[in-house]
Design brief:
By secondary structure, this protein is an all-alpha fold. It is built from four helices and no strands. It has one domain. The longest helix is centred in the middle third of the chain and has 24 residues.
Amino acid sequence: MFYWVTIMFSQTLGTALGDWTADSAGIGYTGSAIIFGTMLAIVAFAYYRTKISHTALFWTAFILTRPLGAVVGDFLDKPISNGGLELSRYSASATLVGLIIVCLLLFSHKPARQGH
């Protein structure tokens, strides 16, 4: 139950937060992406450099990916007059798939260590 409640809140509220920062707060898509991307970078830094609970950091990153995804998705398909790139849904999807593939190839994968 906790898992599904967390999914529901993170999806709904995360998307709303991303939309709000980009539109209503006047920060725009790029500014909002920088804010949420920086917050995720801080979580990644904390994961590797602090003793903060990895479980807490996981859920923090999990929640922060929602507004970042909403902002990046909006940036790709919203009209240029609204600050977007005005890509079609297919082009935006292909762009995201390409980015995911590039990230998978660039970042090394290590098997999990026992006891960590």
